[in-house]
# Entry
Amino acid sequence: MKLFNDYVRKNDLSRRYITPEIIERSIASNGYKIIIYGAKQEAEGLIDTLGVRDRTSSTDSYTYSEGKLKLVFVRFGVSDDDKFELLAHELGHILYGSTGTSSEQEDAANAFKASVFLHNASLEEHTPVIIKPRPTAPPITPPTAPKGNRTGANTLRLAVLIAAVVIIIVVVIFSAQKPSENPTPLSEDNIGVSSVVVVDDSDRSSAPTTAEGETPPSERIVWVTQTGKKYHSKTCSYVRYKTNTISMKESEAIRMNYEPCSRCGGYKVYK
# Structure
C-alpha cells in the first residue's frame, strides 16, 4: 500500500516497530489533538457544541476536521490494544486526507491499520536468534619427564595411566547422563495440568443451533486477545488482522470475565 509505504519511509520505520506512542506522535505532528470522551464533562460539551453526538455514540473513535480545529475522539474505557487499533485507523484517515465515512475512505483507513500490524509481525518473524557455543574443556597435557632419568620415565608412565583412568571415568559419567532413546511418553500423570491448554477452534457452523437457526450464546465461538478484556466475532475488525487471538465458547469467555465487544457484540459477522 503506497500510503503506508510512504509513511514508513518518511519516518524511517522500516526496521522499527510501530508502537502506540509513534502513532500518537504522528497524529499530533499532523496538527490533531486526541480527545478521550465518555468520562469528562468538558469532552461531552465539546461533542454537543460540534454537533457530532450521533457519530461518537455509534463508534469508538472519530476524526473531526473543520478549519483549524482538528480532533480525534476516542471512547473512554477501551483496552490499550483496542485504542492502538482505533488510533492507527484514524491516522489512516488523516494521511489519506479525508475524515469522511464513505466506503473508499474506510477501506483506505482499514488497509493502513492492517499494514501497521503486518509490519510489526514481519519484524518479529525476522528477529535473529543468537545461539552461544558450548564451552569445551581444555586438553589434558601429561608432564614431560627429564631425558635419561629412569625415575622421570616412571613418573611419565604413571601420569599417562592416571590420565587414561580420568578419561574412562569421564566417558562413563557422560554415557550415564545421555538421554534415553525411549523416553517415557507424556501423559496426564507425568505433566502438570496447568501446562496443558485446550483451545476449541471448531467452526461456528458446527455448533448446535436454536429452533430459529441461531447459535445459542453458550455455544458460539468467539475470539479474545491475550491482553484485551472483550470477546469478538471472528470477522470483527478488532481481531481480524491479529495473530495473538484465542478462540473459545462464548460461555467460557463470560466465565473468564470477558465482556462483549461494543462494536460486534461478540457475534455479528462482517464481510
User: Anything to note?
Assistant: Residues 150-177 form the longest helix (28 residues). The CA atoms of residues 225 and 245 lie 5 Å apart. The chain has eight helices and seven strands. Residues 200-260 form one domain.
